[in-house]
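Methods — Computational structure assignment.
A single polypeptide chain was analysed. Its primary sequence is given first, followed by the predicted tertiary structure written as structure tokens.
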Amino acid sequence: MDSIEKEREFWRKKAKEVGRTVVAPIAGENDLKGEFSWEIASAFSEAGFLSLLIPKEYGGMDGDITSFCIISEEIAYHCASSAILIIAQAVGTLPVVMGGSSSLKEICLTKLAKEKGIICFCLTEPGAGSDAASIQTRAELKGDYYLLNGRKMFITNGGVSDYYTVFAVTQPGRRMEGITGFLLEKSTPGLSIGKKEDKMGFRSSSTTEVVLEDAKVPTSNRIGEENGGWWLMMRTLNRSRPAIGAQAVGLAQGAFDYAINFAKDRGWFKKDERNILIRSEFADLAVDIEAARAIVYKAAEMIDEKAKGTPVQVFSSMSKYFASDVAMKVTTEIVQMMEWEGLIQRNTVERMMRDAKLIQIFEGTNQIQRMVISHTLLKSK
């Protein structure tokens, strides 16, 4: 086993341990309460999950995308709502890692890694969900600072973050060619937290509006070049979507294993007509999960190896939409098999089914992922 494989195995073992000992015992209760878990956040920080993609020079773990996917899968096996904290942290961090100035990296990444800070990614708006190029939040240059005005919504880690990675329009009318990224501290005047969403899934994840009213941001807090935000966003999302696919795989595997144990307890695998059908359904679900896992880690491998020739965004989008569709299928069919017992609120698979629906929607709906794939493939032929 080479050093890379040893490192990945290290992350798998650590994620399994944290998932089993910290996440699993409180996942159900956190879902019912609908509250952000600082206990889980602290455990993830201590384990290095929240600084995984930060370079070592800033105190981070300097991990790769495959390790990111492994951790997401192992945590989501117990609780997809907890895994989203790790994913959102990475999505907020990556623009700074890839596009931030040396001074911005030193300030932000060091705090995130060494002081266990939390960051979020602010893109979605009331009129711009999957169509990210339609955002309306404005950033106007006023000498050595920008004034940001607008309203972001469905922001994961909103209200609990120390930093906010915000994308805003600097040249109206140019769509993706007029978008710029900024890093805001939570104490920035003009930045406030709006409505907290009461969601059907990911209930222990804090999701809020982020309101910007003449938020004053120094030019030194711009991420990359002005009007270069779109490609920074796309590079970030290409790297995070496989981890979302891994989250879906972990959720599906957790639901599947739960159902296998449930079926054994109920004697479903005895030889009668109904149970022969149940066996066949389990076989189909197992194949679907393995197919999803294969696509997820293929996408991660391409990113880690900087694959050339095949557009990475194709496999990135494939991994997100296929795996989340599988998670929805697996949880829906298992709830159906369990009949009334699958509908009870404290049932593990009922929670997983609600979480699976959110994975199909957030960070670009699965319909949008299909459009990305078809557009990219047709363009490359």
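Note: The CA atoms of residues 180 and 229 lie 4 Å apart.
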